[in-house]
């Protein structure tokens, strides 16, 4: 019997119809004032109506966060925790923690990017999840394409899972009127991801994603030059490389390595420039983040135009799994400076394995 | 599967049946030579440059077997996926060039700049699944002038595109072309492929065994002797293809021009292929290996195409 956690963010998506960019924090009150109606009930009920598996037992959040929907169906379930009339992100996190204590095998959550962040804060990469899309913002490729696709994922999920990004609006960029996604972390999702938003997972590769990342790491290790500062961008591929080197890299930050030693951790622009000036030779290694293929300007804003001008295109190495790169139309840059963007445009080689590479256009 | 919806002429099916009559016997050399002569005439190429095989994918794999040991391989992505998987397994180094919308073309300079070491370049022209013509004479000759490079062009859809580089085989020893009778000739179930080999390839294939089953051999001979049905079937497919393209455009689906017996489309409808599959129509969902939202649709019989269109209009 699979123990499935079910949690619904009852206010997710309410902002969309009234022109708000989400309902995080106190904004949802404004959404209600503007006449917004909940959108989550029909979405979760659609998914539940299509779940055919009999070997599932639900651990559900109380009331409008779960129980109100599941009680209309014939599933076996028990309620976890309690809630007040008004709920918020802390309730989501608290209830998921209790579900983990109750040994759930899998979590279904209904919401948007904000909810995905809350889920990530508690679960990280420990328990697999699938998101039922119901939010205003859904940058993260952890959501099923639709409520019915979510049901199919649950019906067919086996034991194979992969990591996908948790992305959300970069609030800082948003205040400057730029819509940009920021990487917050990774969640584990089922491998049968045709039904997930954004990109799909291996059917054209026989090796696992982890094996390929190891291969990329091996290739880089063999080709690393001495007396060169290597600056590693965010992402799990680069974390694998750093792990292989025995260096404790941050998952989401930018770190620097010189002759096998960590010389900078979670660097900002100032820190990067200081290191670039200190060392004679430098190389940036990055991987595209998210479904749109951004290598600079979205999840790694620390790579400012000034940093990139200092480095030069010839000293940039892009790495990605074959599977990820073959699903991108192009790589993208959006540094905020047209000249820097233009210098980075054109074709670039992406290392995709120990003996494989893909040439792709940067736009 | 991308197949021809039309049966070959009746005489070809009869020839295949005749091939079964003496099924206890191996194919005789005289029939193999007769088939080579007919292919030679069809392609305007000398017999000694023709290598026969049960399906062109065997030939593509054999070329990779023979030539990948001390060369890097360059292919485009997407391409004929089983072959690119095979190349990845065997080669010392594999470089893929990603084809991207809206044109799916390759930059000639980009290819020429990659040829700085011994290379086997494999390009399907037109490309499957985009249907794009990737090569022209100028680029092909510029590639072939580099003696370090072997160029293998897969012309599986030649009869639909009308474009071939067979005329350059004699001039350039480093050129080879694969063709198939699976598609335009409606013989997918009998499997007949052939290689048109420049000198470098011909020498290496001198001991390649031509194991062709008798029904395949007899049917292929009859098809090349009486190819009138070929033109008729191609015209019917192209006319249906044009009709489907026009109808799909009316629904707002993005249709990309393809020089083959299929159509490349982009749909934003979530689970598009699944919805068609639920109604009994199978299309190739390219997001499994390439870009999200792209699908290859093979042209079927008119009534099948009508069903396809009516389902799509209601999605």
What is the count of DSSP helices of chain A, taking H or I runs of 4+ residues? Answer: 13
Structural class based on helices, strands and sheet pairing of chain A: alpha/beta
Mean pLDDT across residues of chain A: 85
Report the sheet-strand fraction of chain A: 15-25%
Structural class of chain B: alpha/beta
Summarize the helix and strand pattern of chain B as letters: HHEHEHEHEHEHEEHHHEEHEEH
Overall shape of chain A: elongated
E-strand count of chain A? 16
- Taking Cα atoms only, what radius of gyration of chain B do you get, to the nearest Å? 20 Å
Arithmetic mean of pLDDT of chain B: 94
Mind sketching the topology for me?
The complex is a heterodimer of chains A (363) and B (315).
Chain A (H helix, E strand, L loop, with lengths): L1 E7 L18 H7 L6 H11 L5 E5 L6 H4 L5 E4 L9 H13 L4 E6 L1 H11 L5 E5 L13 H10 L4 E9 L1 H5 L5 E10 L18 H15 L5 E4 L3 H9 L10 E4 L2 E4 L4 H10 L3 E5 L7 E3 L8 H7 L4 E4 L2 H4 L6 E2 L4 H7 L1 E6 L4 E7 L1
Helix pairs in contact in A: 2-6, 4-5, 8-9, 10-11
Chain B lengths: L9 H12 L7 H15 L6 E4 L2 H12 L4 E6 L3 H10 L2 E6 L9 H6 L5 E6 L12 H8 L4 E6 L3 H4 L13 E6 L12 E5 L1 H6 L9 H12 L2 H23 L3 E3 L5 E5 L5 H7 L5 E2 L8 E5 L3 H13 L1
Helix pairs in contact in B: 1-9, 2-9, 3-4, 10-12
Task: Explain the overall architecture.
The complex is a heterodimer of chains A (363) and B (315). Chain A is α/β, with parallel strands linked by helices and 363 residues long. Helix content of chain A is 31%, strand content 23%. Chain A has helices at residues 27-33, 40-50, 67-70, 89-101, 113-123, 147-156, 171-175, 209-223, 236-244, 269-278, 305-311, 322-325, 338-344; strands spanning 2-8, 56-60, 76-79, 106-111, 129-133, 161-169, 181-190, 229-232, 255-258, 261-264, 282-286, 294-296, 316-319, 332-333, 346-351, 356-362. A 7-stranded mixed β-sheet of chain A has the order 10-9-8-11-13-15-16, sandwiched between helices. A 5-stranded parallel β-sheet of chain A has the order 3-2-1-4-5, sandwiched between helices. In chain A, strands 6-7 form a two-stranded antiparallel sheet. In chain A, helix 4 (89-101) runs parallel beside helix 5 (113-123). The radius of gyration of chain A is 22 Å and the shape is elongated. The relative contact order of chain A is 0.10. Mean pLDDT of chain A is 85; it is low at 199-205. Chain B has a 7-stranded mixed β-sheet, with helices on both faces. A 4-stranded antiparallel β-sheet of chain B has the order 8-9-11-10, covered by helices on one side. The longest helix of chain B has 23 residues, at 228-250.
């Amino acid at each position: 019997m699979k123990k499935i956690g079910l949690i619904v963010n009852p206010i997710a998506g309410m902002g969309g119809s009234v022109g708000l960019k989400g309902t995080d924090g106190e904004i949802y009150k404004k959404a209600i004032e503007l006449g917004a109606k909940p959108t989550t009930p029909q979405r979760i009920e659609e998914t539940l109506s299509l779940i055919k598996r009999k070997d599932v037992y639900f651990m559900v959040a109380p009331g409008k966060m779960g129980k109100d929907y599941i009680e209309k169906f014939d599933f076996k379930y028990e309620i976890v925790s309690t809630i007040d009339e008004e709920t918020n992100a802390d309730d989501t996190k608290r209830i998921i923690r209790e579900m983990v204590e109750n040994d759930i095998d899998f979590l279904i959550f209904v919401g948007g990017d904000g909810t995905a962040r809350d889920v990530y804060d508690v679960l990280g990469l420990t328990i697999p999840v699938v998101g039922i899309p119901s939010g205003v913002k859904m940058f993260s490729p952890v959501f099923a394409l639709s409520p019915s696709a979510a049901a199919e994922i649950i019906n067919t999920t086996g034991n194979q899972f992969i990591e996908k990004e948790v992305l959300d609006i970069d609030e800082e960029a948003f205040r400057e009127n730029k819509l940009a996604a920021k990487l917050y972390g990774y969640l584990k999702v089922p491998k049968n991801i045709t039904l997930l938003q954004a990109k799909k997972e291996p059917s054209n590769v026989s090796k696992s994603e982890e094996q390929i990342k190891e291969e990329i790491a091996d290739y880089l290790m063999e080709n690393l030059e001495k007396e060169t500062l290597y600056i590693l961008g965010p992402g799990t591929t680069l974390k694998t490389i750093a792990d292989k080197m025995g260096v404790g890299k941050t998952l989401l930050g930018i770190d620097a390595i010189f002759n096998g030693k960590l010389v900078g951790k979670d660097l900002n622009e100032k820190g990067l420039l200081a290191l670039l000036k200190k060392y004679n030779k430098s190389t940036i290694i990055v991987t595209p983040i998210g479904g749109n293929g951004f290598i600079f300007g979205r999840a790694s804003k620390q790579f400012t135009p000034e940093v990139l001008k200092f480095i030069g295109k010839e000293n940039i190495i892009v790495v990605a799994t074959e599977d990820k790169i073959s699903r991108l139309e192009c790589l993208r840059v959006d540094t905020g400076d047209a000249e820097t963007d233009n210098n980075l445009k054109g074709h670039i080689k992406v290392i995709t394995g120990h003996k494989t590479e893909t040439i792709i256009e940067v736009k | 599967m991308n197949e021809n919806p039309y049966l070959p002429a009746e005489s070809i099916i009869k020839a295949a049946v005749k091939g079964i009559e003496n099924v206890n016997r191996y194919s005789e050399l005289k029939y193999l030579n007769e088939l080579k002569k007919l292919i030679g005439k069809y392609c305007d190429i000398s017999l000694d440059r023709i290598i026969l095989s049960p399906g062109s994918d065997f030939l593509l794999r054999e070329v990779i077997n023979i030539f990948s040991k001390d060369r890097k391989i360059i292919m485009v992505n997407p391409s004929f996926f089983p072959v690119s998987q095979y190349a990845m397994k065997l080669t010392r180094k594999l470089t893929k060039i990603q084809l991207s919308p809206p044109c799916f073309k390759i930059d000639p300079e980009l290819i020429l700049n990659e040829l700085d070491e011994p290379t086997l370049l494999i390009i399907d022209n037109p490309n499957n699944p985009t249907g794009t013509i990737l090569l022209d004479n100028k680029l092909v000759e510029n590639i072939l002038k580099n003696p370090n490079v072997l160029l293998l062009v897969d012309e599986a859809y030649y009869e639909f595109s009308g474009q071939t580089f067979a005329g350059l085989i004699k001039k350039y020893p480093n050129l080879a072309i694969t063709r198939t009778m699976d598609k335009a000739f409606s013989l997918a179930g009998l499997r007949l492929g052939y290689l048109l080999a420049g000198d470098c390839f011909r020498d290496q294939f001198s001991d390649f065994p031509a194991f062709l089953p008798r029904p395949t051999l007899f049917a292929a001979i009859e098809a090349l002797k009486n190819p009138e049905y070929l033109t008729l079937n191609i015209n019917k497919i192209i006319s249906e293809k044009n009709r489907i393209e026009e109808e799909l455009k009316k629904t707002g689906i993005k249709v990309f021009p393809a020089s083959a017996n299929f159509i490349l489309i982009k749909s934003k409808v979530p689970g598009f292929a699944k919805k068609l599959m639920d109604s009994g129509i199978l299309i190739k969902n390219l997001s499994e290996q390439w870009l999200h939202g792209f699908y290859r649709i093979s042209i079927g019989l008119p009534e099948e195409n009508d069903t396809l269109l009516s389902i799509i209009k209601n999605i």
